[in-house]
Each structure stands twice: as C-alpha cells, then as structure tokens.
Amino acid sequence: MGLKRLRPVTPGQRFRIANDFSEITTDKPEKSLLVPVKKSGGRNNQGKMTMRYIGGGHKRRYRIIDFKRDKFNMAAEVLTVEYDPNRTSFISLVQYQDGEKRYIVAPEGVKVGQLLYSGSGVTPDLGNTLPISEIPQGTEIHNIELKPGQGAKICRSAGSYAQLKNVDGNYCVIKLPSGETRMILSTCLATVGKVSNSDHFNENLGKAGRKRWLGRRPRTRPAAMNPVDHPLGGGEGRSKGGQPMSRNGIYSQGQKTRSPKKSTSKFIIEKRKNKRGTN
C-alpha cells in the first residue's frame, strides 16, 4: 500500500497524489452482493433541494457489507481485496466453509488466502472478530459495536482504529480516534487491527473535475455570499472577522453540539478534543 505522485502531463495532474492500489487484487465485484444505488441530487420527495453541493457523479452499485460478523466459529477464507466506491476503506470478499460469500471491511495487512474467525473463544489475531472482554489490553481494534448484536458502528473509515484501555466487569474502556474515552459493554464485538487504506487522508484529487466524479458540486464560500444568504455575507470588499457560523446562525467553532441530556453521556469518561483544543 502506498501513494504515487503523477507526472504533470496536464495541469490537473500537477498536484495529484493518488493511491497506487497495490493491495487491490481484483476489479470485478461479487454480483450476488451488489444492489443499485439511487441518487437524489440533494432533493427531497417534493423535488426541493434540502442538501446543497450534491449532484452528478459516477454511477455506483452498493456492496452489501457484513458488519455483524455473526457466523461464529466458522472459518472464512479471504478471496479478494477490492476497492469500494461507497467508502474510504477497502473491502474483502470472504467465503465461509458452508460456501456463503460476504463482504467485510478489510483490515490493514489482510492477505488473500488468510483464514478469519469470529465468535467467543477466537484467538485475537488480525481480522478476527470477538467480544471485547476477550481482547488483550492495549490492542488496536475497529468495527466496534455499541450494542451487542447491533453491528459495527465505530471505527469503520480508512485507517481508523480505537485502543482498548482496560476491561472492568461488564464494561470496557476504549479510546476513540477523536480522543474521546468511553465505556462500552464487554459483550460487544470488535475486530482486531485497524482499517485498511490508512494513506487515504494524504491523497490529493488534483482538480475540481475529480470532485465532480464523486458527486460533489462546487461549494460557495460564505464570505462570498450576500447578507441575505448567509450571516458572514456582504461587506465592502473582502471582509474578515466575526464568529464562524452556519447559514442558520449556529456557531461552527467552539459551540458544543452534543445534547446535555443525552442518555449515553454517562458512558463518556473523557470528552473528545475539538479543533481549539478544549472539551
């Protein structure tokens, strides 16, 4: 896995930093695990734009991902490592002993032909899924459940992982990529290792057209708008100053967005750090 810098044959390639996709083993997905994706263009059922800067993009098909890993104590052989246009990480096609094929989020370093297991009593090796209570302290984990049997909800994007701090009774303490430390039920499942494609954040698209291929339209800077369109709009020439805020007047920096009455706040030991370095 790595990055490559292209020769500047065109202006769009001058600043392009692309993934070399050295881990990818095939470019043909499993047809039985594909479903169509309908695009909305940011419009609701009345045809009105409710989300700006969405539209266009290459046609995609969704790969059905197994986030539950609920075929316990059955070996699954890794057949391929594939690119998924619907997420930043790579995915792997695995085949269980009974012949069933499923897609999973590929862990960093997984190889074709490797056998993966899930369930209680499984060894905590790379790519195996087991209850957090059976994972050694200090281990890097991903695809973490918040409720037993719910399926993975945390650490699913490229290169992300959490660290298991300790296990205390019915709960374990993990440190998330955001810096937040929280408790999760020890019976929840997690996968050992970190998510693949860890160099994703170093990629550079190089040109606006590549952004359009991903379905993202140009975004207008708030300071370039009129006062009727945004709180930061207007002014003679280029105006600076004022608290950064959204179009609706909600502060975008420094203001806490988590509800103080949220029931799960009792599980948070240490809050995440925001951009300004405070809780």
Could you please describe the fold and organization of this structure?
- The chain has 279 residues and is mainly β.
- It has two domains: 3-200, Beta Barrel (OB fold (Dihydrolipoamide Acetyltransferase, E2P)); 225-279, Ribosomal protein L2, domain 3 (Irregular), CATH 4.10.950.10.
- Helix content is 2%, strand content 24%.
- The protein has a seven-stranded antiparallel β-sheet, with no helix packed on it. It has a four-stranded antiparallel β-sheet with strand order 7-6-5-8, with no helix packed on it. Strands 1-2 form a two-stranded antiparallel ribbon.
- The longest helix is centred in the last third of the chain and has 6 residues, at 208-213.
- The two termini are 35 Å apart.
- The mean pLDDT is 94.
Search tags:
single chain, 279 residues, mainly beta, OB fold (Dihydrolipoamide Acetyltransferase, E2P), Ribosomal protein L2, domain 3, 2 domains, 7-stranded antiparallel sheet, 4-stranded antiparallel sheet, globular
